[in-house]
Amino acid sequence: MTASTALAATAAFAAPATAHGPFVGPLNTVRTIASTVPANGDVNPYGTVLIQHTDGKLRRGNILVSNFNNSANQQGTGTTLVEVSPRGKVTQFAQIDPAKVPGYCPGGIGLTTALSVLPGGWVVVGSLPTTDGTAATAQAGCLLVLDNHGKVRETFAGHGINGPWDMTAATHGDTTDLFVTNVLNGTVRANGKIVRRGTVLRVTLCTGDGKRLPTLMSTTRIGSGFAQRTDPSALVIGPTGVGLGRDDTLYVADTLGNRITAIRDASTRHDSAGTGRVVTSGGALNGPLGLAIAPGDEILTVNSGDGNLVDTAANGRQLAVRTLDSSGSPAGAGALFGLAVDREHHKVYFVDDATNTLNALTAP
Length: 364
Known about the structure:
Blueprint: E1 4-6, E2 10-12, E3 29-35, E4 43-50, E5 63-69, E6 80-84, E7 90-95, E8 111-117, E9 123-127, E10 142-146, E11 152-156, E12 164-172, E13 175-182, H1 187-190, E14 195-206, E15 215-231, E16 235-237, E17 239-244, E18 250-254, E19 259-263, E20 277-281, E21 288-294, E22 298-303, E23 308-312, E24 318-323, E25 336-342, E26 347-352, E27 357-362
């Protein structure tokens, strides 16, 4: 794609969520911000988060991106996080040496879409590692906690964490809840067959004022029974994007189910809601992966089966579609993953794995 590309396809499927129309209504242009490939050649950008506060090396308004593959394009071996400014300045936030990680991380380092920034600039990123880029060697991994200068300070492993694939975070006073999808519960042993054991965990941390290292308080399984399987091209497919609505509803991109589901009382429930209530399925969805919440609790998802973003109202109406990538065959398939909403400037940042870039969906 060029640095500024008018979108080839847009469509509305229902009445707008508000009198002003859907969030992506005025957004019709894709702009390439920068390459996400760092000096060591890591590729396949996955995690995408907008930095809300300046802390250490983190700058408010910049976007933090995690890489899943190494320079040889082996999945589950990426070790770098890059920080990108809206104007395209790129700096390396961290390169993680698996041999120097404090604590336990089964299998090593392969940074996933699970990426959040906590108070004080503590960065939490998921690892689903392999030794050779194949699902046969995938191991449980962990959540890594980095300080605001990019140094790994601790890990969280076990406690139900098994292939952390995506994540969102919500802070309440002195505590922060991480909502983490997990995709390796019996998946590797099934050797490509679907197993319905994917989970969503609420990992509760004590974060205080952000000055001290976060500490693990508890983990609670609030979602379970999601379909998951290994895949030669995608390594593993299972529940992916998560986003928390204003009413404490957690929305989950159920990739293999081709739907979005909702788990109520996500911050307070003490049991599993199973796969939750179905919000929407089919229609413009085509294997939804990354998920982010826009104003009005509109649910933005990007498809794995094509290069489209779908805007869905909380009541399940699919409001609009925007084509973000039309390369390859099928067009756009496998290109999209993480995304982040910039509410202040009314734009959506997303990574493109076909071009190894960070891009923005903006108004013309």
